[in-house]
Write a structure and sequence with these properties.
single chain, 631 residues, alpha/beta, FAD/NAD(P)-binding domain, 5-stranded parallel beta sheet, 5-stranded antiparallel beta sheet
Length: 631
């Protein structure tokens, strides 16, 4: 951090144009955008700053699809986003069109469509002012509280000062938090630090999930690989063909992929799963170096295939998080060149059989995407950088079902749900003696990770006030690999916007806001706090059961809203809700007269009291006490 902060120029200390807002968000990633929209909808003026000239982060820069396994676990602004994406394709191409089918209910999209959707969402919010191409230069504090930041307008070359009541770091790198003096983590914790099975140095068979020799679990400073996500097209009329190799091209960098192909490592998987880059057309070829997913308009979203031992990206980003702005640009350009070099290699190298080169030549950059950046994505895929140290550190043990438990750990201050499997890209290139997997690669532990609750405390820095960090949040390396998906970050950003509102409204610091009020607001906005397998969001008890899922009412993933409630469970729920009420009930069904006496305002009905009915009555009675804040 010291190196980064020393780069503040003397010019940044000079008088700068001043802006004043209720909330200042740095980083127009999906998480930052969600925070800005959330705060604006709560009635606050918002400045949204972004280093790039574009908004939308990876979602608008080649991701091509929303990485989500359990769709019912994420709601709120993310669901609004995908609904708008689908509506765009329906309006333009018709309900029964191929493009609507390929959009998969709005979860798959062209990068330009994603960016336009975000722009439309922001344009609807008159309280948000958008500041593209602004680079953070300095953060000013009054004691432990942020009061302003200075940023360089990269277009005008002038510095501007942004004063605010609450600041939100929406950047992938955690730059605002670092400039503000927050403590943060880089690299990987060891197994012993948080008792995490998959922590530290790890070699794990991606098929059997068995640990391999060399998996010591020791912590280090290594960073999981950064790549670019490409948007390629098969439409000849829309192709920007790569006719020459990029700068730094060296075919030797990619020859390992041919070894992978010959050794069978590019063969089809034993089981196909939607959204895992398992594109049948390239299976069993060197072209499987690209993980391809079809998206609308004859385009594909393309990732880099990390199971191949020839994967050249590991280690290339190691300096990035702490690098100067200029060095970050150099690293970004270098990884861009490696990416374009791989595409050129697959299409042209004579060591690859002609039929496979012909297959690769079906896919080229799209002329109508990234038109101001030579049809190449502008956002580097920063899978992990700094992670702020907050009031709580989310670990692997928070996102799994611990032995003897039937759901992941309950978080009383839950403000969102997470659901994506633990999944980490390699941290080292191929090493002698390791012929099964690259070090650091953990492949989609979907049988191990379970839908979990995300506590508000991981958004709140341990000592710095006036700041929320919903993207570079407080987690271990392993846990970060499951929250680092744009849908999850949008949910966390939405929560940050509501927290900012409560802090401003009540003249409190983020650590002191009333969490239960925040939870109720989020539930009213369609946010998911507690994932259940058996309840539809349209069920009348949905909101109440979401809320009470954070209080420990449910010990598994079934809410059973329409099942009769037994008296013993009713007593336990009242106790967990902090309700000091006498209820004479045994193990059998809860007597309706006793229920109606406890909640005299409920409608009179016949039949057994259901679990959902009880939760609704308790929720409406404001039974739960308000929290005193977090410490």
């Amino acid at each position: 951090m010291t190196k980064f902060l020393l780069l503040m120029t003397a010019a940044a200390q000079l008088a700068a144009a001043e802006h004043s807002f209720d909330v200042v968000v740095y980083g127009a990633t999906p998480g930052g955008i969600a925070a800005a929209i959330s705060a604006a909808r709560m009635g606050h003026s918002v400045a949204l700053l972004e280093y790039h000239a574009h908004m939308g982060g990876m979602t608008a820069s080649g991701l091509g699809k929303s990485d989500i396994e359990t769709k019912e676990a994420i709601g709120g602004l993310f669901r609004e986003f995908v609904t708008r994406v689908r509506a765009y394709y329906v309006e333009k191409y018709g309900e029964g069109s191929e493009n609507v089918r390929l959009s998969r209910d709005g979860y798959y999209y062209e990068p330009s469509v994603a960016e336009n959707t975000f722009q439309q969402m922001l344009r609807r919010e008159s309280r948000i002012q958008w500041f593209p191409h602004h680079r953070l230069a300095e953060v000013m504090r009054d004691a432990r509280r942020i009061v302003a930041l200075r940023a360089l307008n990269r277009d005008s070359g002038k510095f501007e000062e942004f004063r605010g009541k609450i600041f939100i770091d929406g950047s992938y790198e955690g730059d605002l938090a670092a400039f503000a003096g927050c403590r943060y983590r880089l690299g990987r914790e060891g197994r012993k630090e948080f008792g995490e099975l998959h922590a530290g140095v790890v070699y794990q068979d991606p098929e059997s999930r068995r640990f391999l020799p060399g998996a010591t679990g020791e912590g280090d400073d290594r960073i999981t690989a950064y790549t670019f996500r490409l948007c390629l097209t098969t439409n000849p009329a829309n192709q920007a063909v790569l006719r020459d190799p990029p700068p730094e091209y060296d075919r030797a960098r990619y020859l390992g992929y041919i070894d992978d192909w010959k050794a069978g490592r590019m063969d089809p998987p034993k089981e196909y799963k939607e959204g895992r880059g398992m594109f049948k057309a390239v299976m069993g070829t060197v072209v499987r170096a690209l993980s391809i997913a079809e998206i609308p308009n004859q385009k594909t979203g393309v990732n880099m295939y990390p199971k191949a031992l020839g994967f050249p990206f590991a280690g290339e980003c190691q300096r990035y998080p702490e690098a100067s702005w200029e060095e970050r640009e150099q690293i970004t350009a270098h990884i861009r060149n490696i990416t374009l070099g791989l595409l050129y290699f697959l299409q042209n190298d004579r060591a690859i059989p002609e039929d496979q080169r012909s297959l690769a030549r079906r896919y080229h950059l799209s002329k109508d995407e990234f038109t101001d950046n030579h049809n190449f994505p502008w956002q580097l895929y920063i899978r992990e950088a700094r992670r702020v140290v907050g009031l709580y550190t989310l670990s692997e043990n928070d996102v799994i079902q611990l032995e003897g438990q039937q759901r992941a750990r309950i978080q009383p201050d839950a403000i969102a749900a997470g659901e994506f499997p633990i999944d980490s890209f390699p941290a080292r290139k191929r090493e002698p003696g390791h012929d099964k997997v690259l070090e650091g690669y953990i492949y989609m532990l979907d049988e191990f990770t379970k839908p979990y609750q995300i506590p508000y405390r991981i958004l709140v820095p341990e000592k710095v006030d006036g700041l929320l960090v919903p993207v570079a949040a407080s987690t271990t390396h392993v846990a970060f690999s499951t929250i680092r998906l744009e849908p999850t970050w949008m949910a966390m950003g939405q929560a940050a916007g509501v927290a900012a509102h409560l802090a401003i409204q009540n003249n409190r610091q983020p650590r002191d806001v009333d969490v239960e009020t925040m939870q109720r607001i989020l539930v009213s906005q369609g946010q998911v706090l507690t994932y259940f397998k058996d309840i539809n969001r349209r069920h009348p008890a949905y909101a109440a059961m979401q809320y009470f899922g954070t209080k420990g009412f449910f010990t598994d993933y079934d809410s059973r809203p329409d099942a009769p409630l037994d008296g013993a469970t009713a007593v336990r729920w009242l106790r967990l809700a902090g309700r000091d009420a006498k209820l004479s009930a045994g193990e059998g069904a809860l007597p309706r007269p006793g229920f109606e006496q406890l909640f005299p305002n409920v409608p009179r009905r016949t039949g057994p009291v259901t679990r959902g009915e009880f939760c609704m009555a308790l929720y409406d009675s404001k039974a739960a006490p308000h929290s005193p804040g977090l410490r």
